[in-house]
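Format is chain and fold; as here:
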Amino acid sequence: GDPGFTDRTYVYPNPASAPGGELRLGGIQNALDGEIRDLAGNLIRRFRCDPASNRIWDLKDEDGAPAAPGVYLVVLRDKGRTKILRAAVIR
Protein backbone atom coordinates (compact mmCIF):
# COMPACT_ATOMS: atom_id res chain seq x y z
CA GLY A 1 0.00 0.00 0.00
CA ASP A 2 0.87 3.65 -0.06
CA PRO A 3 3.07 5.07 2.69
CA GLY A 4 1.20 6.58 5.61
CA PHE A 5 2.76 10.01 5.32
CA THR A 6 3.90 12.19 2.41
CA ASP A 7 5.78 15.43 1.87
CA ARG A 8 2.46 17.20 2.49
CA THR A 9 1.84 15.68 5.93
CA TYR A 10 1.42 18.32 8.64
CA VAL A 11 0.39 18.74 12.27
CA TYR A 12 -2.44 21.03 13.32
CA PRO A 13 -3.40 23.20 15.06
CA ASN A 14 0.09 24.65 15.29
CA PRO A 15 0.57 26.15 17.79
CA ALA A 16 -1.74 24.07 19.97
CA SER A 17 -3.05 25.28 23.32
CA ALA A 18 -2.71 23.25 26.53
CA PRO A 19 -4.54 22.31 28.62
CA GLY A 20 -7.63 21.16 26.78
CA GLY A 21 -6.26 21.14 23.25
CA GLU A 22 -5.12 18.31 21.03
CA LEU A 23 -2.77 17.75 18.15
CA ARG A 24 -3.90 16.13 14.89
CA LEU A 25 -2.12 14.94 11.77
CA GLY A 26 -3.24 16.10 8.32
CA GLY A 27 -2.24 14.90 4.88
CA ILE A 28 -1.89 11.22 5.77
CA GLN A 29 -2.93 8.35 3.51
CA ASN A 30 -2.73 5.26 5.71
CA ALA A 31 -2.18 4.16 9.30
CA LEU A 32 1.21 4.99 10.79
CA ASP A 33 3.02 5.00 14.11
CA GLY A 34 4.84 7.81 15.78
CA GLU A 35 6.11 9.48 18.89
CA ILE A 36 5.95 12.86 20.52
CA ARG A 37 9.36 13.88 21.85
CA ASP A 38 10.74 16.99 23.48
CA LEU A 39 13.68 18.81 21.92
CA ALA A 40 16.10 16.85 24.10
CA GLY A 41 14.75 13.66 22.51
CA ASN A 42 12.87 12.39 25.55
CA LEU A 43 9.80 10.30 24.71
CA ILE A 44 6.57 11.99 25.80
CA ARG A 45 3.93 9.81 24.14
CA ARG A 46 3.59 7.11 21.47
CA PHE A 47 0.68 7.07 19.04
CA ARG A 48 -0.88 5.22 16.12
CA CYS A 49 -3.17 7.09 13.78
CA ASP A 50 -4.90 6.87 10.41
CA PRO A 51 -6.84 9.29 8.19
CA ALA A 52 -10.14 8.56 9.97
CA SER A 53 -8.69 8.82 13.48
CA ASN A 54 -5.97 11.43 13.25
CA ARG A 55 -5.70 12.72 16.82
CA ILE A 56 -2.14 12.03 17.92
CA TRP A 57 -1.74 13.82 21.24
CA ASP A 58 -3.99 15.23 23.94
CA LEU A 59 -1.14 17.57 25.01
CA LYS A 60 -0.61 15.66 28.24
CA ASP A 61 2.47 13.90 29.49
CA GLU A 62 2.51 10.24 30.53
CA ASP A 63 1.32 11.21 34.02
CA GLY A 64 -1.69 13.06 32.63
CA ALA A 65 -0.37 16.54 33.44
CA PRO A 66 -0.62 19.27 30.78
CA ALA A 67 2.49 19.46 28.63
CA ALA A 68 4.86 22.34 29.28
CA PRO A 69 4.81 25.13 26.70
CA GLY A 70 7.49 24.79 24.07
CA VAL A 71 8.38 23.05 20.84
CA TYR A 72 7.90 19.31 20.45
CA LEU A 73 8.98 16.87 17.77
CA VAL A 74 6.41 14.66 16.08
CA VAL A 75 8.33 11.62 14.79
CA LEU A 76 6.43 9.66 12.14
CA ARG A 77 7.48 6.12 11.22
CA ASP A 78 6.18 3.98 8.38
CA LYS A 79 7.69 1.24 6.23
CA GLY A 80 11.22 2.06 7.32
CA ARG A 81 10.87 5.77 6.63
CA THR A 82 10.95 8.54 9.23
CA LYS A 83 9.68 12.10 9.08
CA ILE A 84 10.02 14.69 11.83
CA LEU A 85 7.59 17.58 12.21
CA ARG A 86 7.67 20.34 14.80
CA ALA A 87 4.71 21.46 16.86
CA ALA A 88 4.50 24.30 19.35
CA VAL A 89 2.48 24.09 22.54
CA ILE A 90 1.33 27.31 24.16
CA ARG A 91 -0.65 28.10 27.30
